[in-house]
Structures are given as C-alpha cells and as structure tokens.
Amino acid sequence: MFDKLFEAQKKAEEVKKRLETISVTGEAENGAIKVIATAGKTIKSIAIADDFYTSTDKEALEELIALAVNKALEQAEKISQAETAAMTQEMLGSMGGLGALGNLFGK
Which positions of the chain have pLDDT values less than 70? Predict the structure, then answer.
C-alpha cells in the first residue's frame, strides 16, 4: 500500500516538473499584449507592442494585461488537469482499476 502511495507521489512530482516545461500563451488586443507562462502556472514573460503604449491609457493597459494573464493561466489549468487526469488513469490502471477499494462497494 505504501509503495503505491510513494509511486503516486513520485508521479505527481514528475507531472509538476513536466508542467514547468510546457509553455502557454495568453494574448489581448490581437497580440499587442502577450503573456507567456508555463502549464505549472508560472508567468515567464509579458510583452507589450511598442506602439500600443501610445494608443491606450494606464487603466486600459492594466485591464488588458490582466486579461492576457488570465487567458494564459486558463490554458495552463486545462493542461494541468489533463496531465493530472492521465496520471490518475495510469495509476488506477496499474492498481487493477480501483484495486481493493472496488471491494468496498460490492464489486
């Protein structure tokens, strides 16, 4: 039982490391603002087109940056959930489905 828990913990750490290697992008204003993050939800960079500064005010810029960040984090969350689901499915498969837990429900 503890071997399975240790294996699950090890797999979770592997997924976390892998998520940090996957890049996602969030954009606003047709790419004038671009946020690059990892699927592990670490913001790597924020780029703003040079000519965009002259066409907007501070408040609008802040809102658009927030929008781009949220788009990037939304993509990161989707990838994170998919990776976690795949790991869980793999773990359940290696345990023969639900293993002994299935017996608790009369299976």
Answer: 1, 94-107
Q: What is the pLDDT of residue 45?
A: 97
Query: What pTM did the predictor assign?
Result: 0.76
26 in Cβ contact with 71 (< 8 Å): yes
DSSP line for 69-102: HHHHHHHHHHHHHHHHHHHHHHHHHHTTTTTTHH
Question: Measured at the alpha carbon of residue 75, what is the angle toward residues 5 and 45, in degrees to the nearest 5?
Answer: 105
Which domains does the chain show, CATH number per domain? 20-81 (3.30.1310.10)
Distance of CA 33 to the CA centre of its chain: 20
